[in-house]
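>> received
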Amino acid sequence: MSVHITKVVIKNYRCLLDSSVDLNPNLNVIVGDNECGKSTLLEAIHLALSGQINGRAIQGELHPYLFNSKVVTEYIAALHKKYVGPPPSILIELYFSDDPDLTKLKGRINSLKLDVPGVRMLIEFNEGYRAEYDDYIADPSLIRTVPVEHYIVRWRDFADNDVTARSILVRPSYIDASTLRNNGVANRYVLDVVKDSLTREEQVSLALSYRQMKDRFLADPKVAAINSGLEAKKGHVSDKAITVSLDSSARASWESGVMPHLDEIPMTLVGKGEQSSVKIKLALDVADNSHVFLIEEAENHLSFTNLASLIAHIAAKRGDRQLLITTHSSYVINKLGVDSVLMFMNGIATKLTALDPKTRDYFLKLPGYDTLRLVLSKRAILVEGPSDELVVQKAFHRKHGKMPIEAGVDVISVSSLAFKRFLEIADILNIKVDVVTDNDGDVARLQQKYADYLKHKHIAVRYDTDESARTLEPQLLKANDRAVLNDIFDTAYTTDEELLKFMQNNKTEVALRLFETDKAWNVPEYINRAVA
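>> returned
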């Protein structure tokens, strides 16, 4: 069976208020800033396919923080206004390719009314608790969150039949390298994967060997002598005899006592980079029955060389099965395929291939793929070159007391011919961007060039309307006395014309002097507006 997820719809789940994501049938490289919802997207997909979160059934893991904070705030506000309707619900829908093996899942019971196979998980208020709920909301001033105790999980296909992970047929493999929060978790995960790779006969043999080891422990003369001494304490601390042994209860199977080793070193003592790599590779190797791989930030803890090896392994093992991988790494994007990039922001996923063809081609050819810098930024300032970048950096520091990057602002040096390429992405992803540009002696032409963006709330084109000050250097001279600049540059020009010629012939040196100096100088107003 060759199936894939074509679309994901998520409403009110964690940070995703209302998200609709179209997926590529094979490879999806998801990039976006921290806290933008990449991990939540993968978690929601796995939840809708497996019915589990954090390794446990969702019904037993319901808590108020699964709900989007905005809808919770609106719900509580509505209660204060005496609204008595149902509390908010969570919806996760997965739309599958129209494969004959998934016919039983096909129907129109979905939010888009499409006649395709799919599953939907709805976490909603259970009307059977209406009387209790009415008592609960009688005094809205006491309500602080969603009453999950009154909720039910409905897990159904698009034909409105109840489903289980077994009946869905689409098997996920969720691999999160970031869950290495402690050694026990890493050890437990690897053991689970190792266990999955063993045949039934091998597991039985291992269990028998482990039990025999316990028997040999009790037969050891030293242990027998210790237990004999402990038995003498009978009656002092308990009426029953006290002895030491290895746990042989059902919960103490071989998995709880065996630790994986790498080159005879316990897994818990191996570096986290190696743990992460082994974890991902083992999971891929034993996931032959999986149809969808969900991988969180494979680059965690890895050097460039080890990351290259891991990405090659992922690419080889995936075959033609669907892969969703989140990343902040340009290398991962380049290695797996830029054509498969999904730029993710505020629940919106935009394919790089969906951009204007000229814009797409520009970024596909761009060395280092600086498009990532824009996608991963909360705010960006686009400048025309290194001189402008230094002046903008200094202006920002003087206004805010910190460098732009410390405030989450990325100053990106871009050819002015490419400004509109970046603005197309900023427009789609709703990223706040300021463009700092020269007027080049033709303000009307500049305004015409950026006409499509001049009225955007999150995009601002900053320039000076004085056409006699065409570029950065005359703008600096216009904003400052000749004496001030002579002092900073350690020059002694007696006319503005001579000083300007020096500045234009030494653009980078001039900008660097302004960046490094502690002496006072005036920032051109259009740049001040950009760094506000």
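>> The first strand starts at residue 5 and ends at 13.
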